[in-house]
Amino acid sequence: MRQTSCLSDVAIVVVDFEPWEEGFTFEVADSVTVEDHFRHQLPGFHAALVEGIREELAEKVTDVPLALAVVLRGIRVHETDSRDESFRMAGRVAVREALLRLNGPPPRPERRRARPS
Average of pLDDT values for 32-36? Predict the structure, then answer.
């Protein structure tokens, strides 16, 4: 159980990264729903999500031009613990996960072998 005075982050999103025309576009699928009392916060959460996606792409994908559509398929918001920064970080994590699935894990460093005594 968390105390309401303790800052925590909750941002649960499902996004698809799809090939697209040159550039970057963000779409919200028609099937995405959220409880009515959170609707007024969605534009800010969407903007923060896009900001995080753009930031991470700018850092991780530097050798090819972007031709990408990001489609938001699902979103969950917590009454107390969801905020713009939560969704910005979710965007960054989504890019990391997509790149991991695309490229596989980064190479692991080789372990040093113990020298024979």
Answer: 78
